[in-house]
Write a structure and sequence with these properties.
Chain lengths: ~375, ~170
């Protein structure tokens, strides 16, 4: 080591070597991560809602979605949608926004699996949703359901935004920020926290069977309690996607599933599968897919736009976009240690079902149970 | 590895690296918080492989990006001035301070290469992977950085007189 090497090494070590408050770092990183996640969802929803506004038509939700529950509980009221507005031109950029939902959109019912109330271990199973609401707290332009091993959530977006979560733990919940006080939700003790700076209210409580629930949004205590009292976990629904993946690599597992409703017939779906150390996310939404001129490959006989680029952290990301007909676009995003050929094979062998009725979509798009 | 476990084990090391890459204690901590927050969102995907290289690369990229964004608001130190009171400080502390001040003034990629080489103790291949460049480019960046530091430290030495640097083999 030369004198300059030594000087540089010592200078760097001296500057770096101050105390680090790791717990504070962890808390800030987690809080920031949860904010990021929320912003990403809003961005995705906003983008999709825009495409719906441009290309969509306004037709009431089909009555075929009305659930019948396996455990004998009464089904939730059907979605009440405002009268449809005239269908805009498919290419119009001045299309009216879809009508707002005044009742929760309904997922297809799952026949067979027990509810989260009778078996908390059901929460986190792929393709099943146990979290529901009797009523929407405000007319909603977007309602999004999501389920993964980390738990389930429903996000409602209208004039305001609200998230309801259900999980076996609170790790991924928004932190309780601001002044806290004890409250009672349906006879169970809970905590309400209100951040006077942001106006955010967070209400967290635990069911008798150990499951945690949380309501988060721009809410005061009374409003948060009203939302909490409308939350139900005594029914089981399916998170469904309009395709099958009949041929997947060995060891492929479901990672997450989501369905988003926009107050009309349009909905988008998003599901992620894990293949070893890689993840492939499939999103279906309104749109005509890539223009023929933009397509650079043909996968399964369909023109596809395939793009590979460095992602955050430098690891490559593979994106595939295919127009599936009927005004729906399928997007695939592969991350992690994926094999490009395997991802292309998934796209090529994907069996498209389409249609507007999630009840007709499969219980599980993967070949394995 | 769970996110919390990773931050508890490696968070301090990332913050120290962040301080050096940004040249500022608070900016370094903010940057690491931001990078970890982004990593939190996609932790399952990141931990498909060992997370350390991924996080380090996110941090390096973010530091260089932030540096570029801020560069038009900062004055580059082309010809460092003498540090007032340098003679009165302990010689080693003065030497470190002067060196650090000059390292901070290096262009972002050169500084990142120096930090990764001399603080993280990474070899050329590892640095090249983090900076998304060839090993030859890494060697070139480090050499140019050291040439600059050597020249400027020598100038400071001749100006300050008593720092006592002997760059070719220790202190005089």
């Amino acid at each position: 080591m030369t004198g300059l090497d030594r000087v540089v090494t010592e200078a760097l070590a001296r500057v770096a070597d101050d105390d680090v408050h790791v717990e504070r770092l962890l808390a800030a990183a987690r809080a920031g991560g949860i904010r990021h996640r929320r912003r990403r969802r809003v961005a995705i929803v906003a983008g999709t809602a825009f495409s719906v506004a441009v290309a969509g038509t306004a037709i009431a939700l089909t009555a075929a979605l009305l659930p019948t529950t396996a455990d004998g509980m009464p089904a939730a009221p059907p979605a009440t949608i405002a009268a449809p507005s005239p269908a805009p031109s498919a290419k119009s950029t001045t299309a009216a926004a879809p009508p707002k939902m005044t009742a929760p959109p309904l997922l297809p019912p799952a026949d067979g699996p027990p509810s989260a109330l009778s078996d908390p271990a059901q929460v986190g199973r792929p393709w099943l949703v146990h979290l529901g609401m009797d009523a929407l707290p405000f007319p909603a332009s977007v309602v999004q359901y999501h389920t993964s091993a980390d738990g389930e959530w429903v996000m409602i977006q209208g004039g305001s935004m609200l998230t309801v979560r259900l999980s076996r733990g609170t790790t991924d919940f928004e932190p309780l920020t601001g002044a806290q006080r004890s409250v009672v939700v349906n006879g169970r003790s809970g905590t309400f926290a209100h951040d006077s700076r942001s106006g955010d209210g967070t209400l967290r409580w635990r069911l008798a069977n150990g499951l945690w629930l949380q309501v988060y949004g721009q809410l005061d205590e009374a409003a948060a309690l009203a939302v909490a009292n409308s939350v139900r976990v005594d029914r089981t629904y399916r998170c469904a996607v309009p395709f099958r993946l009949p041929s997947v690599p060995a060891g492929t597992k479901a990672d997450s599933c989501g369905m988003t409703f926009f107050g009309g017939p349009s909905r988008s779906t998003a599901t992620t599968i894990a293949i070893g150390a890689s993840y492939v996310k499939f999103t279906t939404e309104r749109g005509d897919g890539p223009a023929t001129a933009a397509a650079n490959e043909t996968l399964g006989g369909r023109p596809a736009r395939v793009l590979e680029h460095p992602g955050d952290g430098g690891r490559p990301i593979l994106e595939i976009q295919i127009g599936m007909g009927g005004g729906t676009t399928l997007s695939m995003v592969a991350e992690g240690s994926y094999k490009g050929s395997a991802v292309r094979e998934l796209a090529a062998t994907l069996q498209w079902l389409g249609g507007d009725d999630p009840a007709a979509w499969p219980d599980n798009p993967l070949p394995n149970p | 590895m769970e996110f919390d476990d990773y931050v508890r084990q490696r968070g301090a090391a990332l913050v120290r690296l962040g301080r050096l890459l940004t040249g500022d204690r608070h900016q370094g901590e903010d940057l690491v918080q931001e990078v970890l927050a982004r990593a939190f969102v996609r932790w399952d995907r990141i931990t498909a492989d060992p997370p350390e290289p991924y996080l380090r690369r996110m941090l390096v990229n973010a530091a260089i990006s932030r540096w570029r964004l801020a560069s038009n608001r900062e004055v580059a130190v082309a010809e460092p001035q003498d540090v007032p009171g340098l003679r009165d400080l302990g010689a080693e502390a003065a030497e470190r301070d002067a060196t650090w001040r000059l390292i901070r003034a290096l262009p972002p990629k050169q500084r990142a290469a120096v930090v990764l080489r001399y603080y993280e103790d990474l070899d050329d291949a590892a640095i090249a992977a983090l900076l998304n460049c060839s090993r030859e480019t890494v060697r070139s960046q480090v050499k140019r950085a050291l040439d600059t530091l050597r020249t400027r430290l020598a100038k400071e030495e001749s100006g300050a007189g008593s720092v006592g640097l002997t760059l070719n083999g220790g202190k005089s």
